[in-house]
């Protein structure tokens, strides 16, 4: 198996996420032992952001803001779909995400988990269909 970052890169649908992790200097963090649970937006999810948002976030002067947004997608520990419970869950960014479970459908804030439990050496990836943006 590979790290969360390597697993996401190999999947081929997370090129934007990988690019953003590199720009925010978070690659090594997410290759560390963890474990982490990452709610990973697909390239399509990043494309749904308002025009110009991603390009703006990838600028060097916005590195801290980008890092905070990316950390808002990460929860400490390995949380498999069978362990997910509704409620507010703290992220490594310091803000909580709201998890809702309804008829087998898992929502993270406004994003839906479209694929769960992609295993990695240092945690697990759950694919989501929207980029999560912290309130702060």
Q: What would your notes on this structure say?
A:
The model has no long low-confidence stretch (mean pLDDT 94). Helix content is 30%, strand content 29%. The protein has a 7-stranded mixed sheet with strand order 2-1-7-6-5-4-3. It is globular and about 40 Å long. The longest helix is centred in the N-terminal third of the chain and has 9 residues, at 15-23. It is of the alpha+beta class. It has a single domain (4-128), classed as Roll (FAS1 domain), CATH 2.30.180.
Which structural class do you get from the secondary structure elements?
alpha+beta
What is the CATH architecture assignment? Roll
Q: Name the beta content range.
A: 25-35%
Count of separate DSSP helical elements: 6
Range of helix content: 25-40%
Number of structural units classed as domains: 1
Apparent shape: globular
Top CATH class? Mainly Beta
Separation of the first and last Cα atoms: 35 Å
Determine the CATH topology: FAS1 domain
Q: Describe the strand arrangement of the main beta sheet, using strand numbers.
A: 2-1-7-6-5-4-3
Counting DSSP E segments of at least 2 residues, the number of strands comes to 7
- Major sheet: size, sense and barrel closure? 7 strands, mixed
Could you list the spans in which at least 5 consecutive residues all have pLDDT below 50?
Answer: none
Q: Mean of residue pLDDT?
A: 94
